[in-house]
Amino acid sequence: MSLSSADIAHLESVLAQGKKPKVVFTDAAGQIAGRAGKVVALDPAGVDDFVTVAFGSDELPFAAAELRLPAPGEGARRTAAPRQRSHEPTGPGLLPDEPKPQPAATERKTVTTPEAPAPAAEAAPVKKKAARPRAAQAKQAELTITLTYEDGEWAVAAARGARTVVKGAKVAHPAALAMCQASGSDEVAEVVSELVEKIRSEAAEEASRLRRQLEEAESRLAELN
């Protein structure tokens, strides 16, 4: 079970109140499954890891499939059972003192105490969500711009890391050609040149077809006069 749309809306409302709602990691989170953390930031417009969770000394982004809301009562602290008072009678004269048994004489022997076992090695750090260095985070936030041509139209898309910022924004033909020329790549120039020739050929065929239609219409109009 993972975060649903209703759960994400609930987390947004709690964050808006200045609180940090609690979440539990699912099996999709790997080695940290079952552990709990607190949501410190949420970007529902994100594509992949858009829920930032603080747990332990880490503060990392996660996907909705890796988180769930805690069940009612989950994670509550258990209170220790109160100690029962002893009802044995106290004070002198209530019970006779029993003679303490004298320890029997024993032969002293040298006992070699075995060495205490070495403490177990600390659990290996979580590999899936290890703390990322600042340089890696900065690199992930770089902007990627993609220019495409489809169905006679140019479009541009922009993504910051795994999150899409702009999708399918239309670009005029001259502006798109200027962007391709600005790249300074011979391979790009060759591919764009082939595409431009194709566009010109299609435009010439369309113009020829329209001329023929215009001539036919003018001929019919002349016959009617």
Q: Predict the CATH topology of the domain at 5-71.
A: SH3 type barrels
Enumerate how many helices there are, as a single number: 4
- Structural class per helix/strand content? alpha+beta
Percent helix: 25-40%
Tell me what the CATH architecture of the domain at 5-71 is: Roll
User: How far do the termini sit from each other?
Assistant: 78 Å
Coiled coil: 196-224
Biased composition (Low complexity): 111-124
Region (Disordered): 67-135
Keywords: Coiled coil
Descriptive terms for the model:
alpha+beta, SH3 type barrels, five-stranded antiparallel β-sheet, three-stranded antiparallel β-sheet, 4 helices, coiled coil
Give a structural overview.
This protein has 225 residues and is an alpha+beta fold. Among the domains are: 5-71, SH3 type barrels, CATH 2.30.30.50; 138-173, no CATH class; 183-225. The protein has helices spanning 5-16, 134-140, 173-182, 186-224; strands spanning 22-25, 36-42, 51-55, 58-62, 67-68, 143-150, 153-160, 163-171. Strands 4-3-2-1-5 form a five-stranded antiparallel sheet. Strands 6-7-8 form a three-stranded antiparallel sheet. A hairpin with an 8-residue loop joins strand 2 and strand 3 (51-55). The chain is elongated. The N and C termini lie far apart (78 Å). Mean pLDDT is 75; it is low at 77-95. Residues 196-224 form a coiled coil. Keywords: Coiled coil. Residues 67-135 are annotated as: Disordered. Residues 111-124 have a biased composition (Low complexity).
